[in-house]
Design brief:
The protein is an alpha/beta fold. It folds into 2 domains: about 140 residues, Rossmann fold, CATH 3.40.50; about 120 residues, HUPs (Rossmann fold, 3-Layer(aba) Sandwich), CATH 3.40.50.620. Helices cover about 40% and strands about 20% of the residues. Strands 3-2-1-4-5-10-9-6-7-8 form a 10-stranded mixed beta sheet, sandwiched between helices. α4 runs parallel beside α5.
């Protein structure tokens, strides 16, 4: 498995923290998994730009400042992790559009991003972060702004058996467990009290268990009409260190990052979340 670890930075405390989390998370597996690291800054041109000399001079100054800040961060990485293959990249454009272009089909890239605020304060979030979580083809790991890395013991995967198909990124999920270096994968399915024939549920459960058999997960089924509350309880009870979800327009993911769920999200504020897109 050869991967590029792409660490996005805007030089804020939250993105610097996410970079440090990414390095601490992956560096011990870097040689074995042939990891490359890219420290990425996307410089967005001001929307009010004009052709006036003063405005253009200001943009040139901002760009030069970004170059210096990027070099400072890169130097810190090289001093603290001299064994890693790491480079910096500065591009100009829209954050989400440039990320889409850079990650391509997302096959060999993991993107680390810093949360701009608390999970329960979505109104303060940059839409580019939410767009990337939902739409990037590469896995995106979102790190809370005050979260320091600790070795992962338990990785949670929240799913809906009724939505399990062959398009789910099973190999990427397995690769994440390998990257964590021995963590236990724990799968949770929250069943809501709706009358159902359970045929699709049983089919999905069988597909999932066959696909994930190589990493020997533990499986949990919970009954609760409030899915987010159930997931938060699962995270607490099973001491989950990282939560994996697959973004869908409807379902758990949509419920999780919906502004009506701020109270439930508050219980997940210290939990990194990994978004894995369907293939």
């Amino acid at each position: 498995m050869a991967y590029t670890i792409m660490m996005t930075t805007d030089f804020s405390a939250s993105t610097k923290n996410a970079t440090r989390y990414a390095l601490a998370f992956t560096h011990q597996q870097a040689a074995a998994l042939d990891l490359d690291y890219v420290l990425l800054h996307i410089y967005s041109m001001p929307a009010t730009i004009s052709g006036e000399g003063v405005a253009l001079a200001s943009i040139n100054d901002d760009y030069a400042h970004a170059e210096r800040e990027l070099e400072i961060e890169l130097d810190w990485i090289r001093q603290n992790y001299p064994q890693l293959k790491v480079r910096s990249l500065l591009v100009v454009g829209n954050i989400h559009e440039e990320l889409v272009s850079l990650v391509g089909n997302g096959k060999d890239v993991i993107v680390f991003m810093g949360a701009a605020g608390e999970y329960d304060d979505l109104l303060s979030w940059d839409n580019e972060i939410l767009n990337s979580l939902r739409n990037l083809k590469a896995p995106v790991l979102l790190v809370p702004q005050h979260m320091e890395f600790k070795p992962l013991r338990n990785i949670g995967y929240a799913c809906n058996y009724k939505n399990i198909t062959s398009r789910l990124p099973f190999q990427r999920l397995i690769n994440t467990v390998a990257l964590a270096g021995g963590a236990q994968l724990k799968v949770v399915y929250v069943e809501t009290p709706v009358i159902d024939d359970h045929i699709e549920e049983e089919k999905g459960e069988a597909i999932l268990k066959a696909a994930l058999a190589p990493v020997k997960p533990e499986y949990f089924k919970m009954q609760n009409s409030h899915v987010i509350d159930a997931i938060a309880q699962f995270v607490a009870d099973q001491q989950i260190d990282l939560l994996i979800m697959v973004p869908r327009q409807h379902g758990i993911w949509n419920s999780l990052f919906h502004r009506s769920n701020t109270k439930g999200l508050a219980r997940l504020n210290k939990l990194p979340i990994l978004a894995l897109r369907e293939l």
